[in-house]
Design brief:
Length: 325
């Protein structure tokens, strides 16, 4: 579906209140079997300084079904009887959204009260070509509640290739803080439901093609970091999603061979960590052919050695480091 940038009415002040029956912003929160975290996310969404919002909690097949004690007419709970995955759950929320703007909040994260207001102000004041979406700085918070670092977003005009663009000040890892015009999000097709990891890569390539992205330096999104090992199955999902992204956006990757090589090498390394030996060899070799550099030769050699050798190297490295105090 093609999107006409003129469809977004930039002349309106996005911070002004609309009809109570027509919320200004929709916050979508997908959740699955984490009620204690989801309640915190809901509270942060309902506490926004812009009151004209609705919050859609998408219960992705939780057992028992999610129940909230929050009695707020702005909160709607939509249940999927069987788990569909986070991208499908987000699309359920997108279909139900009534706000002119939409943002997606992970159930284990939270928004600062000024998040929506600052983002809409930035969109209103942006000099970028319309339509304009907004990314805010993201604070990474440890399990004790302390901020360990802050990632600052990039700013890119419509028609760019988001994370493939080089020499941009800021981080491409602030995608959770996105707030975008709902009609734009629907026009680009929402989330790719076949992806079970790294889904933001594909989303932002499609979004940036149709929409400018304005960065805000204020950290209004709190991303809680989790401890513990990553499951191999999750690594495989991530690698498969990266491969799907590359295949969907071949034209964009061809325009950025340096970033494409790094992406393919990272994909190969991710496949290797998941135990997919042949896929690792394939993609690290493609990276080396695209950019014949020493680092990609090392990655290719590591993939040839196989996952068992990789596991041995990590075991020896951990042994040298000794026990964690």
């Amino acid at each position: 579906m093609n999107y006409d940038p003129a469809d977004q009415e930039q002349s309106e002040n996005p911070v002004g209140r609309a009809d109570p029956q027509d919320p200004l912003v929709t916050v979508v929160i997908p959740t699955h079997n984490r009620p204690h975290l989801a309640d915190r996310a809901i509270d942060s969404a309902l506490a926004q300084s812009v009151g004209n919002i609705d919050v859609i909690l998408v219960d992705d097949g939780s057992e028992p079904p999610f129940r909230s004690e929050r009695e707020d007419p702005r909160l709607v709970i939509v249940r999927c009887e069987t788990p569909k995955g986070v991208c499908a759950a987000r699309n359920v929320g997108l279909a139900e959204a009534r706000g002119k703007w939409i943002t997606f909040l992970d159930d284990d994260d939270e928004l600062r009260p000024e998040m929506v207001e600052r983002a809409l102000q930035a969109a209103d004041q942006s000099s970028l070509p319309a339509p304009v979406a907004v990314l805010s700085a993201m604070a990474l918070v440890d399990p004790e509640g302390l901020i360990t670092r802050v990632r600052y977003p990039v700013t890119l005009p419509r028609g760019k290739h988001y994370f493939l663009e080089e020499h941009q000040p800021g981080s491409y890892q602030t995608h959770n803080s996105l707030i975008a015009p709902t009609n734009v999000f629907r026009a680009i097709g929402g989330w790719d439901e076949l992806m079970r990891g790294s889904e933001h890569d594909d989303l932002f390539l499609r979004l940036n093609a149709a929409c400018s992205i304005q960065g805000v330096a204020e950290a209004t999104y709190r991303h809680w970091e989790h401890q513990g090992p990553r499951l191999h199955v999750h690594m495989r999902h991530r690698a498969e999603a990266m491969e799907r992204t590359l295949r969907k956006h071949r034209g964009a990757f061809r325009q950025h061979p340096r970033k494409a090589a790094h992406y393919m090498a990272t994909m190969g390394a991710t496949y290797l960590r998941s135990g997919a030996w042949l896929a690792a060899i394939r993609w690290t070799s493609q990276a080396l052919l695209t950019r014949p550099e020493a680092r990609y030769l090392r990655w290719f050699a590591a993939s040839l050695a196989g996952p068992r050798v990789l596991a041995l190297v990590r075991w020896l490295r951990d042994r040298r480091r000794g026990p964690v105090a």
